Description:
The protein is an alpha/beta fold.
Amino acid sequence: MDNSKRRASTKVPDKICQYGSECYRKNPIHFKEFSHPHLESILTEAPAKNKYRIPDELSMSREVVLDQLKIIEQIYPELVNSNTPPSKYSKNNTSLAVPPASSSSESPAKTSLSKHSPSDGQGKLKNSPIPKPVNAKATGEAGSSTSVSKPQSKSNAVADLFAERRAKMAKLRAEEPKKPESQPSTSGQQARKQSDPPKQQSGVSLKKVIPRNIEDYYPVVAPRGQMAAKLAAAAPYNYFLTTITDAKVTHLEPLSITFQELLDSSLGELECSVQMNFMVDIGWLMGHYFFAGYENRPLLILYGDETPELKMVSAKKPNITAVKVNIATPFGVHHTKMGLYGYTDGSMRVVVSTANLYEDDWHNRTQGLWVSPRLPPMPEDADTGAGDSKTGFRESLISYLNSYKIGHLQPWVARIQKTDFSEVNVFLVASVPGGHLNTPKGPLWGHPRMGYLLGKHSAPIDDTCPLVAQSSSIGSLGPNPQSWVLSEVMASFRRDSAPIGLRRVPAFKMIFPSFSNVRNSHDHLLGGGCLPYMKATHDKQLWLKDYLHQWKSDSRNRTKAVPHIKTYCRWSHRGLYWFLLTSANLSKAAWGVYNKSAKFEAPLRINSYEAGVLFLPKFVIEDNFFPMESKLGQQHPRFPMPYDVPIIPYAPEDTPFFMDYLRG
């Protein structure tokens, strides 16, 4: 539609919705943030209020267009019968300002979040001392997302979620170079047949709004029926990274997986499941369950970030129960990323991850997952205390689930109690909001829990071995290293089983993407949407710059995939002494801080829910360290580090990536 016919409004946003005429949104805030010229032109040409001339070429339903027009008319009433001159639209008006160039060379921008490159229209990045805001979804403790003030109608909400995703995939495929047509293979026909949902349906069917072929819905689709073999080959670590959409080499890597593979039939026939996370796109998640054939299986979702879609999903899909995890303090979030999968044969599986359940986190970001082996049910006559792992994983998991005090979890606690966890070889390290004291079984949560486990089980580590932390966000750490990092985190993370004595504090190193790391990523500056570290916070802890290191992952084909993964570890030339994969960023809210003003025992104050798994060589390969290199004839496979070793410190001109570059 000719945009010149659209009349201007000083309030209409400059940024155009990336879905164009395929947009199915009905959220008022969406129309306050993005312009829709095809709709605004209809309003400006309307002879009177509520008298719209809808062109035949619009591909969506007339009802959706009418609903959208009514929303826009309420927000921008001046568009109707306006006599102001037409506005000018430019597809390049979403430029991002960048700080002065660092040592890295600039590369053309490319994003999956928006096809409009941040440029000046000539392919060159603009430079400006003041960053311009860009709508990018941020995740993590300090993360934020665009909220919706008004829910969609129940009759159309679920359908709209899927229709918009289908439209987006169609748009992306239309922009790709055309490939020669070929005859469909037998295997492809079989895959489409397997993707059909079960015949017996309850609730609201999604058949009418989702295409049959999963390739039309998700950009990376792994072959069906192979996840069990992939998991077996990943032993003894069972540790994966997510595939990277724009790095096709990762699509076939044995240690790269998609979310769809977690629901693969080779792992078992799903009976019920739990998804615990911070951010959940219910349309994205339900699409995966649909294609796996589990659309109507019981699903419990515990989430932290509220959306209208999550609030209404139970009314549309009675098999889904969505519960928001409320936290007393505004400084904490439900940040855990964990899945529980129960199978029809009575077995189950646990997955601990760093990824939120929405598209961006599984697109071009580096994420980590630990997938447990199949955990069979215990014999009915088994002793109630039998069946836990040497790491006490089952007991720790039950304690963690009970901390929610949510009745919906109790059937799962009962099931876990009757499940054999003896094959699990990692420790659960979690955080729970509240004030915590030591227990007869040691500290249960936060960084003291890590210190307790390392002090009890880690092999002696030379003090020259640094602690290497890596996270996607950094909290307020204090005016100097001793404020919290050295006095509390290092005091716990430095521990090992060597006798207590005079020892020096190990070096501390921190991996956090620099501005140049993000600028050169697959999604250019928008890739930093998962790094909610603010300049105002950094300015209060400038000492941290001396400890910062670049993100580099050539060995895993992920240097250009911005890391949302969080890891902590220690290594030397001998190997890796331990490795922690977790949802916990480097922050007091995640790990806890002692209340030093207490008269007696100082309680640990934690604000957020977090969960991770600790790999200790003693329990995984019965050795003192994991090999970090592949050598001929070695007994155990090398540990799959997510980044390159040795790590590279920031250059003097480097700066951390700040969310300010996107928000302005």
